[in-house]
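Project standup — Tuesday

K.O.: blocked on the structure for the chain from last sprint. Re-posting the sequence here as requested.
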Amino acid sequence: MYTEDNVKNTIKKTGKQLLLLLLTFLLAVPALPASAAGGLSSQASAVASALEGMDAPSSIEGGTTPPPTSSAPSQPEATPAPTQPPEDGGEGEEGPPSSGEEEPDKEPGVDALPLLVVGGHDTYLSGYEGAYFKPENHMLRGEVASMMYNLLAAKPPVTQPKFTDVPEDSWWYTAINSVAEAGAFNGKGDGTFAPSSNITRAEFVTALSNCFGVESGSVEFTDVPESHWAYPYIASAVKKGWIKGFGDGRFGPDELITRSQAVTIMNSALGRRDDDFAKDRGQQKFHDVPTSHWAYLEVAEAAKPVGGIVTPTPTPTPPPDNNYPFQSGDTVRVTADIGLNVREEPNGAIIAAVAEGALLSVLSTAKWPWVQVRLSTGRTGYVHSDYVEKYTGNGGNGDGPVTGSGAKLSTGSVALHQYQSFRLDASVTSGMDAMVWTSSNPDVAEVSYTVPYNGTEQGAMVYGKNPGTTTLTFSDRAGTTTVSCTVTVSGPEAVRYAYSDGISVGAGVNFNLIAVTDPSRTAARFDIVSGPAQGSYTATEYTTSTSTSKQGLPDNTVRVFRANVAFSAAGDYTLRAYSADASGSYSTDYKEFTLRVTNVASATTVSGDTRRASAGCIQMIAGFEGFVSEIEDDFATAKNPTVGHGYVVPVNHTFYNNLTKEEAFGMLIDTVDNKGFATAVENYRKKYGMRMSQAQFDALVSFTYNLGPAHLNPDKNYTFAALMNAVVPPVDIATNGCTGYLNVGEAFIYAASDIYSERYTTVPNGATVTVTGTNRISSESKQEMWYKVSYNGTTGWMPAGYVRLNIRNPIYDLNYVDSTVFAYNFLQWHTASGTHYVGLLRRRMAELKVFFFGNYAEASSSHPNYKKNTYGFIFPTCCTS
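H.V.: unblocked you, prediction finished:
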């Protein structure tokens, strides 16, 4: 941990230049474990004191400047919500994980690393009875703990149990508690360790990194975006040469790690690849690891030798159906702790995913070890027998639970169009395992799949197949609790989504009017129904886009019509989009959308114009949020099923599932424009008559989309208090002066308008100062505002973001925003539930690049400067810990 004493000692040992390099490294490296956000804490004062008298840091590519010198807390009142996780990209039987990163309760001391014995060739893993290693078996968390225990350089004594699910009589009790005590591998955060649960590749690399320390690095794996919780650990492992991925550009972070993969990574981490590597390979006689096996040498290095030739147990002839652990008519329970994929045929295409604990009815074991099952939704498919177990429950005789109680639905009547889905929530008082869904006419509509929220609630995703009426029934197997709803499916919508490239466009600038339809439509027409001009535009050319479901929904194919236009008259427009059928007849139903055309030439021009989000804003948010084609529950907040670019589907609402990217973009525009996000920022702007640029508006919309409109409150957090301090100074301020008070924490008075100049004194929060001068520094790379102030006989310069001027009828103008204070506070919104996220920190930095400089290009993660602090924003002190 980088404490105040560390910093001071480093100053003594290395001198100011090396310290500046150290600070730059600490601020730039995303992989360091983050401590709790402390705002402008005592660490900041320590760093500031350490820098006293030093020269300003030289320019280092990608680096950051030291934090502002103040010790008052300056953090948000509420914790920001996390961004959406990426789509699951695994190909194994298990579905997406239900929880994210696991970190030890205590951080291993830097001087104590590594925790495991490096070098040497002692074995650390055993095989199975009968001379089998089972290289493709998935590792259990308890097995990983035992493996690490065998390698610990110092084994802490176990004085008392640390986990409620690891009793003293369990075979891995000592190993689990010892590695946890050492800080190598800890539990799930709820008092449990889950020793019998499988571990993913990302979780394994993270646990191993805790034993050796994390180094900064980067990865190019296609399935490990920077937003992935384990990105720093995987990047560190790549840099250290532990891992290389699968050879097809993937790492498979969320796939379960096999025994052969685990020992391969472990052997690399232990530095064993010398001349004695796998020296006893000739003694290895595992029947399932022949010399031709890719991991033969890795296993020989890790596992205890098998002495002599052991005759393998012959594979028995498959027993008849009634001798399997379960048979036709039984009920089985899913044991895979992160979900199970259901396949069309053994090893075939995935048609659905079911959660741990879900109950399935066995139809046949004829293709053992694959089992044909029926889901609660009525769909049939195959699952592997390794991931299910016979369930007796409360039904007796192996047929599972049959009774539940208190069944309820969120509505008794559902109406949707063909191809649409509907979120119907269901709950029980008890016995969710006994509940099943049926449809009186599955050709009209059925529950395509369910999203479990908890043990008594779930979301049922109803899919409209064809026009008609059906009844969906939610009941237990015994029929003791039953509830139903009527589903009416009408014909498909003529237009699914209609929008322009952006909600706000420039006058005379070409842009696209877009309509998304089903494949039966042949043309689209856009009519202006209100606005400063009239017109109608037709598009007959289209592109086709298809999304293939992982949940068993039919392929979704759409046509995308585009009309390229330019509007010369500025103002607000309302348009309606229609589509034509095969005969050329246009629909009577339509999709309506709005846009604003503005005369403002530049995105950075500040004015009092009304604002709406631009195309750049929408593209920026889409990049930040990622793309989820099929609805899934929010991993951090249950009962918030999400689809597209972060859209949370409300209960009892229709939506399109299995989205194409064009549909998701249209949904995002509608969400930003009509669901209160852009409106909230515009209302905030109007409330104070605030002058702002399109770029500033877009950055605030992105911030609000991520965190919610409630944070646009200068009375509840320093971030927007600092923004509200941006006012046009009185013209006579130099001659008559005016007073102001500090409302964003305490601050220093400097000798010059430069945070690296000499500090004269500290002014406490709430204190009154006299302002007698201003200095606005505005360029293509710097935006600062300074006040010349006097306090208790001391006169000097202070960043204007700390001071609220006592003037009547202030003119709020974001030309006068001080980046020193506003950016520092804005960047603190990168935590969720107390955890610091590098991805959120980079999102905040990207939004600041847009806010101050209109740099939309660097707000894209594909830009080479996306990770770089191009403009030298001052990072919060929590980012140096």
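K.O.: great, moving the ticket to review. The first helix runs from residue 4 to 28. Residues 1-112, 308-321, 394-399 have pLDDT under 50 and may be disordered.
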